[in-house]
Design a protein that fits this description.
The chain is an alpha+beta fold. Strands 1-2 form a two-stranded antiparallel ribbon. It has a two-stranded antiparallel ribbon with strand order 3-4. Helix 2 packs across helix 3. Strand 1 and strand 2 form a beta hairpin.
Length: 133
């Protein structure tokens, strides 16, 4: 790779072009582009150009963003849980499973675990140690 090509790659990355786009433009292998960019710290150009601070969705406090990491939306776990609880219709929950309780036979929805056997802790205890739900 020539010095001219290296300068062109750097300029294209700083303008926001992807590895694939640069590869097509310059007719170079995509892995060569990726390797050059990694070795010269050109991997997260788009992250560095963004504003490094944002505000918490719940309380509005400023959040310091770390370059190269996923963007933070909340300043703390407390704010995250408050927001989720008050905006439950906006949370995209994909892992809802319909299950049948092994003890009482009731249908229930399990989030994230399709192999769940009991609808509640009480049914688990009653099934394991005997009793009525």
């Amino acid at each position: 790779m020539t010095d001219k090509e290296k300068q062109q790659i750097k300029a294209l990355r700083e303008s926001g072009e992807s590895y694939a786009q640069i590869s097509k433009m310059m007719d170079l292998p995509i892995n060569s582009i990726k390797t050059y960019c990694r070795r010269n710290n050109l991997t997260s150009i788009d992250v560095e150009r963004e504003d490094k601070t944002s505000t918490c969705l719940e309380c509005g406090k400023p959040i310091e963003q770390t370059p190269g990491r996923k963007k933070k939306k909340f300043c703390s776990d407390k704010c995250r849980m408050l927001w989720w609880n008050s905006h439950s219709e906006e949370v995209n929950r994909k892992a809802n499973y319909s299950c049948t309780c092994a003890f009482c036979g009731k249908q229930f929805i399990s989030y994230g675990n399709k192999h769940r056997k009991y609808c509640s802790h009480a049914c688990y205890i009653d099934d394991r140690f005997g009793g009525a739900c």
